[in-house]
């Protein structure tokens, strides 16, 4: 003899007895409906039975799960054909909400998924936002942030090293250029100093202003003037002697 059903069990039992008997009735479509009609019916029903409309209502969640199961079966041609064959054979079809066996509390906790996971599974590329998915998304965002920071720091380090290397190369180039210019200047200056010594080896260079070439020319001119004066004095000396001492 079974145990008497409490008020919650009676409510659920009456709900299943008065509910739809197959997936077509659950979606509100006739057995000959097209795949597009099944899809539109599922979207319309899912808006009404979505768990987010009343998170504290467990009945709404169970009805939404049944709706998702019905759409998964009827939206695929192979599973729908098998389901229709089961209905035509007179065998008891799989009732809404009875597709999965009961699980223990540990299994339910270990394989927990958000209430609306099956709803979002109909849309490819859209992930349900449950606690685990939010945590995974948060960890993924942190990894992306770390990678971005590492790339930024590596770029700054490479930029600094390249700048220092370029600065060192520029400094070496300028030092070499200064060395070459200084060597050319010193060599030119030494050559300029050696020119007057070769052109006028016996004449003293007066301490006057001017370039070495000008000083050399000035010394030569002064030497010629001195020679002319000495020659003039030598020519005038016999005449002076004759005047002072006349011949007998």
TrEMBL record:
PROSITE patterns: DNAJ_2. GO terms for cellular component: membrane. Residues 22-87 form the J domain. CDD domains: DnaJ. The chain crosses the membrane at residues 144-163. Residues 78-111 are annotated as: Disordered. Pfam families: DnaJ. Keywords: Chaperone, Membrane, Transmembrane, Transmembrane helix. It is found in: Membrane. Residues 88-105 have a biased composition (Low complexity). It is a single-pass membrane protein. Gene3D superfamilies: DnaJ domain. This is DnaJ homolog subfamily C member 4. It comes from Galemys pyrenaicus (Iberian desman).
